[in-house]
Amino acid sequence: MLTINRDATSLQSASRLKSQSVTTGDFLTRTRSEFQPIRLNKASTSHTSLKAKSAKLPTRAVPGGRVFTYSISATGTTYSGNTSFPSSNTSYRAATDFRLPGALFIEPTLFAQNSNRRNGVNARDVTFVIGGDARLITAGTLRYSTHTWGHRHWGGRTTGRPPLDTAFVNVNNQTDAVSASVDPQWSRNDTSNLFSWTSSWAGTPKQILAGNVTIRFTNGGRNVSGRVTFFGNGFIEPGAYAYAASFTGSLSR
């Protein structure tokens, strides 16, 4: 588990990973890793987003059968690390706090060309669009999907691009939750999953290489809350960066 001490100058990292077949090597090359969320000592502030419009929901709380859109508000922090690549030895320092509006999309399993992949068929596909800065130069801006075709939700191109599943995604109908973990074996293939760690022209977006998502549904699926934690680095330039945020929201479509 990675623990960030907001009163200290760095993040002390000790990753606890679950692996199915590989037990040695860098944590980004594990066969299957479930990364625990960064836990902040400073309490996060929840923000209720737009009131949901009426929509027909399934009897269970976890949505299914079509694309469900939630208006969300995200509060979090970005971090910079002291290594040239994110690993279990990286220590992180808080860079920028943020509070941004966004959208969460939950949809049925999308077809994937890598259907024989070892990360299995996603129970749902999940997409986050946090922040309205399409240039990704505002700290906290996030573009992430468990499938490459989820990029269409932020205007990304899908024509001519292979449909790839790049995550492990599970549904727990007993706890009304969806969990997703970035598949480090496929994350490099998706160059559009990005986050901004600083508000600067010099702070180029970072490609997401590892991390996880927890989403919980309440009120029959009309309300949502959860947490995202991602780790990444630049496309060319070295560096280790992290993104941690909590969110709340309600059904908008």
* Low-confidence spans: 1-54
Class by alpha and beta content = mainly beta
Radius of gyration: 17 Å
Distance between the termini: 35 Å
Overall pLDDT score:
80
Secondary-structure element series:
EEEEEEEEEEEEE
Share in helix: under 10%
Tell me the strand order in the biggest sheet. Answer: 4-5-6-7-10-11-12-13
Shape: globular
- Approximately what portion of the residues adopt beta-strand conformation? 35-45%
Number of strands: 13
How would you sum up the major sheet? 8 strands, antiparallel, barrel
Tally of individual helices: 0
Tally of separate domains: 1
Description:
There is one protein chain. 44% of the residues are buried. β11 and β12 (223-233) form a beta hairpin. The strands form two sheets. Strands 4-5-6-7-10-11-12-13 form an eight-stranded antiparallel barrel. The chain has one domain (61-251). By secondary structure, the protein is an all-beta fold. It is built from no helices and 13 strands. The chain has strands at residues 2-4, 11-13, 39-40, 68-81, 92-107, 125-130, 142-145, 167-172, 177-182, 194-195, 206-218, 223-233, 241-251.
Short description:
This protein is mostly beta strands. The protein has no helices and 13 strands.
Layout of strands and helices, then pairs:
Layout: E1 2-4, E2 11-13, E3 39-40, E4 68-81, E5 92-107, E6 125-130, E7 142-145, E8 167-172, E9 177-182, E10 194-195, E11 206-218, E12 223-233, E13 241-251
Parallel strand pairs: 1-3
Antiparallel strand pairs: 1-2, 4-5, 4-13, 5-6, 6-7, 7-10, 8-9, 9-11, 10-11, 11-12, 12-13
